[in-house]
Prior knowledge:
The structure holds two protein chains of two kinds.
Chain A: H1 43-54, H2 77-83, H3 86-89, H4 101-118, E1 122-124, H5 130-147, E2 155-159, H6 165-172, E3 176-180, H7 190-196, E4 201-207, H8 219-228, E5 232-237, H9 249-252, E6 256-259, H10 261-264, E7 279-281, E8 293-297, E9 300-304, H11 323-361, E10 365-366, E11 377-380, H12 382-388, H13 392-401, E12 408-409, E13 418-421, H14 429-448, H15 450-454, H16 467-472
Parallel strand pairs in A: 2-3, 2-4, 4-5, 5-6
Antiparallel strand pairs in A: 1-7, 6-7, 8-9, 10-11, 11-13, 12-13
Chain B: H1 8-18, H2 48-61, E1 66-67, H3 80-86, H4 89-92, H5 104-121, E2 125-126, H6 133-147, E3 155-159, H7 164-174, E4 180-184, H8 195-199, E5 208-213, H9 223-232, E6 236-241, E7 262-266, E8 282-286, E9 299-303, E10 309-313, H10 320-323, H11 336-373, E11 379-380, E12 389-393, H12 398-407, E13 410-411, E14 414-415, E15 426-430, H13 437-456
Parallel strand pairs in B: 1-13, 3-4, 3-5, 5-6, 6-7
Antiparallel strand pairs in B: 2-8, 7-8, 9-10, 11-12, 12-15, 14-15
Helix pairs in contact in B: 3-11, 5-11, 6-7, 11-13
Amino acid sequence: MIYEHSRKGRRATAQAPREQADLSGIPSALRRETQPRLPEVSEMQAVRHFTRLSQKNFSIDTHFYPLGSCTMKYNPRACNTLASLPGLIGRHPLAPETHSQGFMACLFELQEILKTVTGMHAVSLTPAAGAQGEFAGVAMIRAYHDARGDTERSEILVPDAAHGTNPASAVMCGYKTREIPTGSDGDIDVDALKSALGPQAAGIMLTNPSTVGVFERRIKEIAELVHAAGGLLYYDGANLNAILGKVRPGDMGFDVIHMNLHKTFSTPHGGGGPGAGPVGVSQRLEPYLPVPMVDMDGGDYRWLTEKDRPASIGRLSAFAGNAGVLLRAYVYARLLGREGMHRVAEFSTLNANYLLKRLMEAGFDAAYPERRASHEFILTLKRQAKELGVNTMDFAKRMLDYGVHAPTTYFPLLVPECLLVEPTESEAKEELDNFVEIMASIKQEAETQPELVIQAPHTMPVRRLDDVRAARELDLAWRGDE
Amino acid sequence: MPFIPHTEEDIQAMLATIGVEHIDALFDEIPKELRCGELNTIPPGMSEMELSRLMQARARADGQPLCFIGAGAYDHHIPAAVWELTTRGEFYTAYTPYQAEASQGTLQLLYEYQSIMTALTGMDVSNASLYDGASALAEAVLMAVRANRKSKSKRILVPRNLHPVYRKVTRTIVHNQQIELVEVAYNSESGEIDKQELQRYSGEDYAALIIPQPNFFGVLEAADELTDWAHANGMLAIAVVNPLAMTVLKPAGEWGEQGADICCGEGQPLGAPLASGGPYFGFLCCTQKLVRQMPGRIIGRTVDMDGKPGYALTLQAREQHIRRSKATSNICTNQGLMVTAATIHMTLMGSEGMQRVAAASHANTGKLTQALTSLHGVESVFDGPVFHERVLRLPIAANKALRALAAHNVLGGFDLSDDYPELGDAILVCATEIISDSDIENYRGKLERVIASQVETPCQLKPDW
């Protein structure tokens, strides 16, 4: 704890103004009586403390990190360096357009690139993350129906395997949600969908490839059914990495999409964010896009605001979203170029299918063995759990001892004892081979010395944590000796 | 191939293992008619060197003007160590700490962040961040409507001197849940929330009163009185504060008899560069009583199997990945890296350093006000005490004055005439601790000449000095 290094009166003196200026302009009744308790440490103590904390993390830069649905690919350093150039990092968000043309050019071109790779008619970059993009998308669906006087539509359909953000976003937009089951082949149950469609259905939220790691083969038919019933289709871009440059949501019939730039455009993940969740729409939804957006007018860039877009769902953040993340995505897109976009899908899919095949050969069960993997796939350890008494969580924790971050566990909920594995395109073959060997070793350990796996991890800074105690005896802030 | 390590030999071996001849065969489940062709409108890839040249030209094009705009984003000195440490790969390229044992660095840091934020705001608990200040306020409003058991109302009192974009964003996010935002006027002399106007709502059923400190005009509110009024009328008090101001002002948790119930705001002044408006981070703190209504990630301190202290995500039953449609919010990815920077920033500054920055910003804005109001026709609009921003009225059209100043590389402030036309040619100015006396003199001199040239030849936008 940083507070444990704290000593009264110790300071990193180089950081602050030399003296305390006069505060007498602020009435004493409005002033605080005691100093807030912040850590009091030297600069070196702070640097050492936070460096040591960083070393307790697994990260892409240090470990294989096949966390399914999160696209933990290499984050090029150039993205950070070039987004942090002085004229960009120091630009005030309310600087006039005369002092913003360089920045706005990057945003405009990013809008254009994203339009092209997704096949959508228009793009707004402002949503701060995937979930905010979902909110914006569903809000646009609602605005569209409302503008047509079609106000009876009260439900959003979501597959049972959907990300939790999908139903949560629909509810924030004032909708109820209805779940559509997934068939045994991993595709959506089209008959169940047919019976759920009707004048109450505002639309459906789909991920394609879906959260079970396979391409929804009947997507064209699904789009026709939903449209025929007066609903709209929402595309959750969490898995866009799998299809970049191969197939486009716009061509599949989606009306509105979000993209996760921290995933597909590698901006990075930052220990939980910031992300960016731009939205793209078909022509009929364009008037509702969130503002601000960037427009080009005779070679000059200008902001599109509520004045230009009176039907817009409005603003989602104080300025223009996570601008610095957008710049990183722009740099990444320009480094890749058109040929690089195709390769993202090709090599992420090659890696996933290779890894799946090798794991199946090593005795693991695929959840959908007859299907082609997309950029990720699901293993089920149901058999191991039953036969050996070692479950998916045990496997995941033991992987940490072997120096790889665990894949996503227990998601989607409909596959028992599942691991969702996404190797991404930036991993070399030998890293994948190493992962297969690790999985095989853990299986062998589970057969011969299961306690070793059940008690794992053994080499991390802490062993398994008491989550029940964390929730029951809440300790959410350091109170010192109080 | 940038960022792809495969050799031709690797590719062939992998395809052989899978049992297909070409990579393209791996896409055989995608209906042929849906496959897209070349993405010809996307330019070909660039080398890092070529792209550096392009980005440097773009960055140069935006110049580095002398900036006196605040209005929700403030230029403060950030110690060099902050971003050197924050961009370490172990922080920069990790994700949400789902595997706690392999994420103790991020988890402990977030716990330290929560500790610092509660100390700063005087509240009991803090979450681990939201997107930005405006969206944090929207979440606070949703939280208040859920949490206020005394009120059946879905109406919220929103002062008109709250940041105009915060009002817009909150509306965007809450209006589909039939929550109504009712505006309360400000006092035209002091710039504070108008107390008489507020009295009109006494005894009525509202879920919460929003109290900005300072408000958008930079003016300080009588936070004690407003908090007590809200509580006396069965409303929750939602504080929207500048976190830097909290180092010298009475913290929200101590306002009035019982303290504010929820405290939120924009974290940018705590170590985030201006960067065109983001990424920043929203903070959200509340009383212990409301913790289960909180949106977003929360970190708890606990012990491991051996009784050793450790940190983990907690109260996850509030969140979308567990609770789905019944979650307190849809938020998943938050602003983790920005909070990493803020924690390091506040640790390096310490409370003494943070207070000096706050005081220097207050003093500099005072000097700026004095310098500019010494010009004929420039006057201060409100007489209430301010933190580090001030509304000034100009003797010439505000938009023309700002454009003329910008042409000489001075961003003179934020034009209030769109949002507050009743104030006339008013601008909002700010001078943080990084502004020097000669910067202020530079601004004063240029504004003097702009005013002179506009008064003499009102149509001329670019005086030729």
